[in-house]
Amino acid sequence: MNIITRDDTKIIIVIAFLFIIGILLCIIWYYRKKIAQMEKINLAGINISSGAQQKLIQRIMEVAKQQVDAESCSLYFVNDETKELYFGVALGEKGSLIKELRFKIDDSFIAGWVATYKKTLNIKDVNKDKRFKNRNVAKNFGLNEKSFLTMPVIFGGKLVAVLQMINKLNGGHFSKADEKTMELLIETQIAPNLEKAKVYNYMQELFNDSIQTIANAIDARDEYTQGHCMRVAEYSIMIGKELGLDEEELVSLRYSAVLHDVGKIGIRDDILNSKQKLTAEEFEEMKSHVIKGTKIIEQISKTNPDIVYGVKYHHERYDGKGYCEGLSGEEIPLFARIIAVADTFDAMTSNRPYRREFPQEAAVAELIRGAGTQYDKKVVDAFVRCFDGQS
């Protein structure tokens, strides 16, 4: 009779979560592909091409502003829970100053009126319109406002945003033709892209929660490594930013760092929690967590090899004396070189069954000592700059 042990149960649960993560990752990459396709639109002869969904929406807004000759424009997003409007995109000289503001939805201000009644407002001169008393924002930020074209963004019968064009550049007011232009843009670009972004963000949050669960499950197998995966991710992101990685690269680096030890779910508890120095045979089994982890991640991240590389090669050494393939120098993928430094620093500054934690300064000194041999000096230098900036 086959008996399922406690270790087997843990592994089955983690593998089930990894299967779910794989499904979520496929969905996320599907939406990324859809968003990338939408980035290639051409509106009135103006090419739109940018990297991320937020940039895409912002670029569409820039095009909209140009099409109707507006001085500035804003896109308010709707928070259904708090019944508030907030600035999702605010272009123009004062845009960055007002993006953090929140407004209760009511008809005391222009965007609130449009959100409340879901109707377009085309105001020639707001200073002569007595309906809206709540204009303190404009006064506080020194905004000289006159003409407004404010329209609801509706998708599937539901209000998702409010679009606002401010001040016609020629000093006049927005025309009916401008309204038609904006209606077309809302229907064909803004509304569907906002809906895609909403679904994408939801799936991303679900994926992140699943990743967190897996990280906790990995750490729970070893009483001395609680929180290790998340700390390695934090250090890795810190290094990645210092090295100038872009937003998408940082997201992938985070996933790779969180999952760098996922293969340990296949290592026996008595080896993971051994209070003695491992035998040669036990150490070989411990080293196998890299291969086990790689096989798991390859199944759930086929579209992003960088995530796999961070897991597979984070125990390689810069001088070629590491494992599992003995790569050296820049043959080792950058994610792996970053995770190697982050992983080692956290290991040194955490208690282990066979030693006490190192002081942080001593751990940094060890990294510096190993720069150019065990670690990439460029990565160590980036980490040291971050560490010095925080201390």
Explain what this protein looks like in three dimensions.
This protein has 391 residues and is α+β, with helices and mostly antiparallel strands. It has three domains: 1-45; 50-191, GAF domain (Beta-Lactamase); 222-389, Hypothetical protein af1432. The chain has 15 helices and eight strands. It has helices at residues 6-38, 53-67, 95-98, 110-117, 136-140, 176-220, 228-242, 247-258, 269-272, 280-287, 289-300, 305-313, 334-348, 360-370, 377-390, and strands at 42-43, 46-47, 70-79, 84-91, 102-104, 121-123, 148-155, 158-168. The strands form two sheets. A six-stranded antiparallel β-sheet has the order 5-4-3-8-7-6, with helices on both faces. A two-stranded antiparallel sheet has the order 1-2. A hairpin with a 2-residue loop joins strand 1 (42-43) and strand 2 (46-47). Helix 2 (53-67) packs antiparallel against helix 6 (176-220), helix 7 (228-242) packs across helix 13 and helix 11 (289-300) runs antiparallel to helix 12. The longest helix has 45 residues, at 176-220. It is elongated and about 85 Å long. Residues 35-51 have low confidence and may be disordered.
